[in-house]
Amino acid sequence: MNQLLLDTDVVLDFFLDRQPFAEDATRILALCEEQQLQVFVTPVSISKVYYILRKLGSHSKVITHLKQLLTLVEIASVHKEVVLEALESDFKDFEDALQHFAAKIEPSIQLIITRNLKDYSKSSLAVMTPVAYLKFRNAACD
After folding, report:
1. Per-residue pLDDT at 1
2. How far apart are the C-alpha atoms of 38 and 125, rounded to whole Å?
3. Residue 111 to residue 39: CA distance in whole angstroms
4. Disulfide-capable partner of 45 in 8, 55, 106, 127 (CB 3.0 to 4.6 Å)?
5. How distant is the alpha carbon of residue 119 from its chain centre?
């Protein structure tokens, strides 16, 4: 599973250095930098990360950080079909539904990485925490 969608919470762990989660988020993004992993995020995540980081720093600094992130990750599409599926789904959280259906229409994505597994209980894709994914990946490489 080398193509995955990174949920907003994990991206925020990285940017906000939220302990003890930041280390795993950093390791996942480092795998992207080393081209061992292809990670997708959605425009929804970028928007939410901007909104939260902007409360803590200047517009130009936040834009610089997001541009750096975009050198590592791809953007999964969110279009009308994705929004309609999210609206009609059984997901309790609309943002998570958007993330899920954006990942689902991207043929290479087989996995969503999030710290909030319960939010993706309705997912038809595999869902793992960053810790579980990194353990799984390490075991597969051994």
Report:
1. 61
2. 16
3. 10
4. 8
5. 13
- Whether a cis peptide bond, with omega within 30° of 0, leads into 20 is yes
CA gap 83, 7 in Å, rounded: 17
SS3 (DSSP) at 81 = helix
The single-letter DSSP state of residue 4 is E
What angle in degrees, to the nearest 10, is found between the helix axes of 94-105 and 43-54?
A: 140
Q: Which long-range contacts (CB under 8 A, 24 or more apart) does 52-57 make?
A: 52/12, 52/16, 53/15, 53/16, 56/16
Cα 90 vs. chain centroid, distance in angstroms?
Answer: 20
SS3 55: coil
pLDDT digits (tens, 9 = 90+) for 6-50: 999 999 999 999 999 999 999 999 999 999 999 999 999 999 999
Distances from the Cα of 63 to the Cαs of 22, 42, 47, 100, 111, in angstroms? 20, 16, 11, 25, 27
Q: Name the β-bridge partners of 75.
A: 41
Phi, psi of 76 (to 5 degrees): -80, 140
What range does the domain containing 37 cover?
3-141
CATH of the domain at 28: 3.40.50.1010
Beta strands 74-75; 111-113: pairing state: unpaired
User: How far apart are alpha carbons 14 and 84 in whole angstroms?
Assistant: 30
